[in-house]
Structures are given as C-alpha cells and as structure tokens.
Amino acid sequence: MSAFERATKDIESEEWVDISSFVEEACNDFASGQLLHRTGYNLFEAMSAIEIGDPKMDSGVNLARFLSTEERIERSIIPKPDDTLPNETVIEIMDQLLCCQATWFSGFSLAQSIFTCIYLHRHTCITNQWLLPFILGLLKCCDHVRTLIMRADVFGEEDFLGYTFDFYLCGDRDDDDITSLLEDTIKRLSEKMKGPNGAVFHSIRSRVEFVSTFRGTLMALDGKLTASGTPLRTPSDYNQARTILASCRKHLDELVERKGDIPMDQIFDPQVARVQQGPAPARVISLLDFSQFKTLFSSLIDALDAVTLLPQLKSKTINSYLDYLYWFSAAEPNVIARSRMHLCVLSEGKILGKMTVDETINEGMLAFHVPPATVKKQQTQDFVVEVAKVAVHSIRVLSYNRARQRRKIVHLLDDIVIIIQYAQSLDYEYKPPTEDQEDPGARHLESWVLDLAVPFMVQFVELGFELELYHPTEYASIYWYLDYLQGFRLRNSQYVSSLVAEGESKKSKGKKKTPFVPSIDQLYTEAHMALCRGIFRMIYAMHCSFPGNVIPYSPFSTSLFPGPSSDEMRFYHRFGVFHKLTQPTPLHYNHFKETTVHDTLTVEQLIHGATECFKQAKFCIEKVVAHAKTTSIFTEPTQTPLTLSRYSTTHLQSLMKVSVTNLVQFQLLQGAKAKGEAKPLGVNFSAHGVYIVLKN
Amino acid sequence: MEVAGAVTAQKETTTSEVNAPNIDFVTYTGEHQLPLIVGLIEKDLSEPYSVYTYRYFLNSWPHLCLLAMIEDKCIGVIISKSDYHRGILRGYIAMLAVDKTYRKVKIGTKLVLKTIEEMKSHHCEEVVLETEITNKAALGLYENLGFLRDKRLNRYYMNGVDAFRLKLML
Ligand SMILES: CC(C)(COP(=O)(O)OP(=O)(O)OC[C@H]1O[C@@H](n2cnc3c(N)ncnc32)[C@H](O)[C@@H]1OP(=O)(O)O)[C@@H](O)C(=O)NCCC(=O)NCCS
C-alpha cells in the first residue's frame, strides 16, 4: 500500500483525538522564543521544521477534504477508467501523463508530477484497453530511468529527484510481458485504424508507439535486447538502439496535442503531494506543457543519438573519448542522457565495455608520439595505472551538469597535480645518464599529461562565462589568462613536434630538414589563443579610446574595499585554483598588472595589435575549415544533431564570426573616431559563448 | 510625508554613505522585534521561512541582525551568521529586505556595510550569500560592494530558479 493509500484510508477509518489542550499545557512553561531541541540542531533542521497548523507549511491541514480515487469515481467526479472512457479523453490523459513525465525528468518530484494522476494510485482500477498498456509502459520507463540515473550517479538534487514515495512503478512486471502487451496493443490499434474513426486510433497508436520506442531505446542501450546482454560491445548493438531511437523521434514528431470534453483537474490533482509522507513541499508546481514536453524529449533524443555513435569513434585514445564527452556536455544534455553516456563510456570499468582504460591511455600516449619503448616500460605502465584513476574521475566530472562540473574540476585538479609530478619524475629517470644534469631531458610523459590536463583548466575558466559568473570588469583578466593557457597548450604541442622532428633528423642524417608545418590541432589552438589576445587588446584599446565607457577595463575598479591587496585577492579568487599546479606555471596578479601597464604602447599600437590577432585567428580558422571538410571523428559519414567535435562547421563558423565581426566593427569604430563621430559600443556574446564581439 | 521628504533629500546627496537623520540602525535585542522582522521579510518571499529559521539566526548571532528603524517602524533588516567553513571564519548573510517605499536610497547598502564591519571586527575572512540570478536589485547592490559571483547553483530555490553564490573576501 502506498503512502497515499494509507493516508486516504487512515483519515476515514482512524479514531482522532484532539491534543490541542495538551500541547498548550505543555507549552505553559516556555517563554516565547524558547525551543526544545537536541544537540546538533542546525540550520537545515531549522529550515525544514514546519509550523503545525500553518496551511502554507503543514501539508496535513484540511486533508480531511481530500477524496480518494474510489470516492471520486463513486461520486462521478472523475470517469471510470474503463472502456467507457471516450477516446478523446484517453488521448488527453496520455498527453497529460507525458507532460508529467517530462516534468519529472526535469527535476521535480514524482508526487508532484506523474502521481498527480489520481488513477495511478489505484492502478488496478484502470481497465481501459488503450490506457492501461500505455500507463504500464510509461511507468516501466520511469522505473528504468530511475535505475539508470541512480546507477550512473552523476546527478545532483537539482537534476533529479529519485524518491519514489512507494509509488507503483511496475517494478514487479516482467520486461517481456510489458513488451508483448505494447506490441499487441499497437497491432490492435493498427487494425482499428482501418475502420471508422481511424484518425483517433492513429493518435492513440502514435502515443503508445512513442512510449514503446522510448522504452525500447532505453532497453537497447542497457543491453537488454541483445543476445550478448550487458554491456553493449559491438557496433551493431549500438546500431540497434540507434534504429529504435530514430523511430522514437518519428513518433514524437507525429504527436499533436488533442483535448477531450472531460475536465482534467480532478483526474490530475496537485494536492496529491500533500498526502505523501516524504520530501514533497506543500506547494503546487507548474507542469511542463505539451510543447515543452516535445522540446525536452526532442533534445533528449538528440543527446541519446550521440550515445549510439560511440563505437563509431575513429580514435580509440582516452583523449578522444574525453574530447567527445567535452563536446557532448557542451550541448547541456538532460540528466538521463548524461547518465546513459557515462554508463556506456565506462561500462563495467572498461571503455565501451571493451578496452581497458589503461589501453586507451597507451593508445593516447602513442598517438602523442611518446616513444613506444617508453610506453612499454614497466614503470610507465605503473604510471598508467595512476593515470587511469584520474581518467575515470575526469569522465565522471564531464558527466555532471555544467554548474556542478565547474565545481568538480577544482577537485579533479588535485588529482592532476599528482600525475603531472609522476610524469615529470619518470621523464627525468628515463633521461640518458650522459646528458647534462641541468637538462630535464625529453619531457614526453609530462607533455602528454599536460595536453590532457590543460583543457580542464580552460574548461574551468570558460564555464564561468556560460554560468554568467564574470562581471564585465573582470573580462580583461579572464581573456588574459585564457590567452596564457591556450598559448601553453600550443607550445606544449609544438615542443612535442620538435621532439619528433629531432628524432627523425637523427634517423635520416644528411637529408634536408623538412620545414615545420603546424598540425591542424595546433592551428586550432592558435586560433583560440589569437582570439583571446585580440579581445584582451581590444578591451584595453577601447578603454584607452573611451575612458570609462564600453567595457570597464580595470577588473577591479568598482570595489568599495580598496584594501591594499583587494584587487589581488579577487584575481586570486578566480585563478587561485591553478596555483596547485607547477605546470603551467601559475600567473600572479603582478604579472597581469605588468602586462597591462602599456606605458610604452600607444592606442594606435594597441589597435594594430588587436587587429593583427583577429587576422591571425581568421587565417588559422580558414586553414582548419579547409581541413575539416575532409575529416570526421567518426568512421562513417554521420549526421549528428549535436555539435560533437571541434571540427564541426557550426562551431568553426562561430569562431570565424568572432574574428570577422570584431575586425570589421573595430575598424569602423576607429574610422569614426578619427572623424570625431564615434560613440562607444557595447559587447555581447551573440557569436560565441566565450568570446565577446563588438555590437553594431 | 515628512519621512518621504527626508528620503528624497537623502537621494540628492547621492553618496554611498547616506546618513538619514531620522533612520536609526539598531541591533537585534529580543523577541519583541521578531514580528517586525518577519513582517518585512515575508512581503518579498514566495516561500515563507518558519519561525524556527528566524530564531536560529537571531538567537545565536543577535549582533549580526540589524534593523533600520524610523521611530517604531522597521523599514529595513539584515540577518546573518558567522561560523567556520573549511577552517575559515565565514560570514553568511541570510536575509536582507528594505521596505518598498524606502528602496533605492542606499538603506540596503548601509545595512550590508554595517554588517560587514561587524563581521570584520569578529575576524571573518570572507562573506558569502546566495541570491536568485533574476534578483537584479540584490545583485547590483552586492556587486557594487565588490562581491564576486563565486558559483552558480542550479535550481537552488523551490521555484526552480538558479542562484548565484556571491562572495567577498575581506
Ligand atoms: C535588494 C534590496 C534589499 C535593495 O535595497 P535598497 O535599499 O533599495 O538598495 P540600495 O539603495 O542600497 O541599492 C544599491 C544598489 O543596488 C542596485 N539596485 C537596487 N535596487 C535596484 C533595482 N530595483 N534595479 C536594479 N538595481 C538595483 C543598484 O545598483 C543600487 O545602486 P545605485 O543606486 O547606485 O544604482 C531591496 O530591493 C529589497 O528589499 N528587495 C527584496 C528582498 C530581496 O530581494 N532581498 C535580497 C535577497 S538576497
């Protein structure tokens, strides 16, 4: 019996005693404001305490008037959910349930969403031949989703409320039974569609098929439909899920909201939450409407699509899997998709259930030109074991929602510090003994780890823009630091190229040296670096041209607490987390101040500098675009709704737009200024989430 | 009327250090002030705090609760606490409200500044608070004082709105 059933029964059958006078008597010895509490009474408990009898807090007040499912049916307040239910009403109930389900998926409690449906509290009373299978399928989906999210454990209370209040979620029903029930219903509906009122039956069928295929996708991705079982291993396992997902999308697109004649307000009663013994506040929430339901599912399907593509990733290095997760996360997928992705990427401790994390790390090192002999060494393999732990941690961090992810990166950096040091010590040990004591030797392992680590630092800074943490006065210092991080990444990669070139020139003595050609990844990083530097200079030049206007330049000009070190403290607050690391060498406030005291540079020189940077960025992006046309991260040509790689056209176009817009606007502005017509411009993020452009 | 006049006069001075002659800033002294405080704060809240929440703060940190009074009328209030967080003494501003008719004349700012001074004198090293990302007034007030947006907290409030954790290092 659920809490709901108990509560509605109890109210009718129990004998009630009025204890008001007893309570009042007990209070006589208290002065106003005194409180009897146990030790350890804290803020959380104070805030959770309710005032008994206050209808805003005490959900039990006036409950005697709450009518149970039977009562509502008996008194004809709601129709009996049997086959006398008009089909239009069946459809409307289905739609409302879909909206409720989407509401639950977006982080509200079950009691306030799906279980506002009065019928569900006596599921045995539902006998309508279409509604029953639909509801059982939907509840089974809920059960599945809940298990999935709990297992993946990459959610926060802001993403998902898993508390079930003992509600019936079809846990006792066999998966195969539900599947054949749904299949059979779909078949019967197809027959009905040929007769009179075919359109109505078509509508019902679309809904049943939608639930059935969504459930099918979840099951397929969970390995429940393949002979080999969990985890999914072969590309064809994933392809099966992909096919079902495609038909789920088709059915979703078919759905058009329909209304019947019977009002829904007694069938879906938000007051249900009040009779639950569990963490559901007394207040009413607003449910997602039909179009919001469709939007939520549409993006969920897009995100699950990215999961089904996992085995098609060309590169099997840990770096590429992390990169894929990085892009996936940028699309801000729903917690269901993030959980599914996490469990597929890391399935039973293995990447896609196949390769060990160690193997993908070895692949990563080899792809980054760490000499095979170095990779093979036992000491390196011991190091790989440590890196694997950090890799698993990184996969988890990237699976959280964006706000949490930023906070989790702070902890991840603690782990990263350790593997950087580990790599440094091994590099030193592997150095030929003949070499100069001062010379650190070839930093193969360190460079590889840094190539993995720096993107997380960049991500930490960039997420601040997305989460709107930065005040415009801080922008200058933020771009300044990003410039440094991107530059570090570039130099690190160039250093590895130089090691490779050195190795090759040793092999082929006498032959002419091949000139250094930057790789596409290097050009890509250089583009970012140039954009950061260009924007930093632009902000500074604008500040000098229009003092006090446009983007306030000094990061800390508005503080009312100009204590001796207050600017420094604020700088430290933004970048202090990087001080844990020895590489990249952390930058201090003084560095920033020194760079920005451009005593020697005129405004014209600054403007020229900024323009050059935007031109450079444009040049690099053009090269990357040319290359991107012929490359894909997937083994087969694939259309994806999400941007899943740095080489995606939309992404590169947005970078291009930043460079071009800033180039053009900046020049126009300076031209106007020369003629004395200039007015300061604002900035916005219309071209890219991280890089500002001048507004026109 | 007189009061309103005083407020306009204040506005003309337009400094951050407005000192209205007839506004008294007093520290919390006892239960008799509770109804004044609750009355003022509840006007702006979608979700009521229980009386236990108020008492939790007021009884433990009475010196960190300030009221802005015009005679018997309470027109502004701030409620805070201070305790150790990861080894640092941290001040936390729990509630702040100014009566609608007296807004935009720096009473809120004054309440916060006085509280920060009090926290400083008790050796707090930082001050934090949470506010809805849509609360332009509060964000403006705190950011003017040098608070930084430290974190974003998704769906922090019961109404589903995100919050910013703001922080000021002392
Ligand atoms: C937030 C609140 C306390 C501000 O009190 P106040 O006395 O009006 O604030 P101040 O006069 O000290 O304002 C200081 C700065 O805040 C900003 N600000 C205040 N009200 C604003 C508004 N309505 N819109 C935009 N910015 C506003 C401005 O930047 C202002 O500086 P300025 O006057 O130089 O432009 C008040 O609006 C209030 O009680 N709101 C409801 C309760 C609440 O939201 N509390 C905060 C919960 S964390």
TrEMBL record, chain A:
Residues 314-693 form the NAA35-like TPR repeats domain. Its main location: cytoplasm. One of its GO terms (cellular component) is NatC complex. Pfam families: Mak10 (PF04112), TPR_NAA35 (PF25789). InterPro entries: NAA35-like_N, Naa35_N, TPR_NAA35. Keywords: Cytoplasm, Transferase. It is found in: Cytoplasm. One of its GO terms (molecular function) is transferase activity. It comes from the Eukaryota. The keyword Cytoplasm applies. Residues 33-178 form the NAA35-like N-terminal domain. The keyword Transferase applies. Belongs to the MAK10 family. This is N-alpha-acetyltransferase 35, NatC auxiliary subunit-like. It comes from Planoprotostelium fungivorum. The lineage of its organism: Eukaryota, Amoebozoa, Evosea, Variosea, Cavosteliida.
From TrEMBL, chain B:
One of its GO terms (cellular component) is NatC complex. One of its GO terms (molecular function) is protein-N-terminal amino-acid acetyltransferase activity. The keyword Membrane does not apply. Keywords: Acyltransferase, Transferase. SUPFAM superfamilies: Acyl-CoA N-acyltransferases (Nat). The keyword Transferase applies. It holds the Pfam family Acetyltransf_1. Residues 23-170 form the N-acetyltransferase domain. Belongs to the acetyltransferase family. MAK3 subfamily. This is N-acetyltransferase mak3. It comes from Planoprotostelium fungivorum.
